[in-house]
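Weekly structure sync, notes
Attendees: PL (lead), two postdocs, one rotation student
Agenda item 3: pending single-chain targets
PL asked that the sequence for the first pending target be pasted directly into the notes so everyone works from the same version. It is reproduced below exactly as submitted, 392 residues in total.
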Amino acid sequence: MKIAYFSPLPPQKSGISAYSKHLLKALSSKSDLEVFHYGNCELSDITLHDYCNKPSSLSHLNDFDVFIYHIGNNPHYHSVIRDVLVSNPGIVVLHDAFLYYLVAGRGIGGLFREFQLSEIDPTVSIFNSLSKIKQISQNDILKFGSPEIYPFLGTVLRYAKMVIVHSFTALKAVKEFGFHNKVIVIPHLAFTNDLKLKENINIEKIRSEMGIGRGEFLVGLFGFIGPTKQIQKVLFAIKELVEKKYPVKLLIVGIGDDIKPMINKLGLSDYIIVKGFVNDDDFQILFSFVDAVINLRFPSSGEASGSLIHAFSHGKAAVVSDVAWFSELPNRIVKKIPIGINEVPKLVNTLKTWIDNPEVVSKMGKSALRYSQQNFSPDKVAEMYIDACRKL
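Predicted structure, written out during the meeting:
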């Protein structure tokens, strides 16, 4: 069985890129596969095809038995993958259970096309499509406040022979959309953590160099910075803790919305460190020295959080929104906060408890590490991919 594997790859600034990097290490040792990507690539010891810069590489797809397409919401990385899927149906790894942003990234025309494809009689429904677009485009279409209303799964599911998701929430969403082929839940994977084991990482020294005092509680927020991450609520919680003289700081690692104006407005510039995008090695190091992690999410499209699972592999306690995939996680490895008007007070109380009781943080972190080792190892996940390919 020969597999054609489509995904963004490092150094592309994408969580799915990092996911594929680590999955491919395990998957390539268990199968005959070639990887299709575009742009520069840091990977070696694997057959690579930059199909955007060399489209002729796609002419050999008849040589493959199985196609695996990683589909996420970033239009820059996944629009071209979706285009190849339409011509060569295969297994879709659906990293998000709604794809509004993937479609909106193509502009007004992309939205119109997708609305029309979902209609029984496109000619009659043109007015309906234009009315929806008018509602969406009152502001920036990529900042539409209710993307979950328009999941835009139709095109992807129409050409999927099988769908792989990372949560039962996403499985339910795909089934409810009317997909009748097989849907398989394969857990997200925990990235390897070799750097943490190296003795030359002096955590106290790094914390000191970044202006984190001894005894200060450092909370990490990792991943793409967008409206669904509820950043404003996190900042409000940090502000309240600072005003109550709790020794806390927040480290934000990722790209996306510019949050520095909001940080300055709240007077928190001395308590928040914004690192932006970092490479995989630095990502490992930064995870190593935070005390705990925050990963709020609303709305959620049923996606699993790669950065949260990465926190588990570092043995970090985490506070999450009690929604979708996050609700599926055991209570012993995360602190869940119900979404709604009390999120900020509950987040503040959780962090207070953790700052005052470090043994609680340590116990949860150890439980998270054990759970990660048992459920998210790359070898285990790769075996599940191979099994899925055999079932196609």
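Discussion points:
- DSSP finds 16 helices and 13 strands in the chain.
- The mean pLDDT is 90.
Action: rotation student to compare against the earlier draft before next sync.
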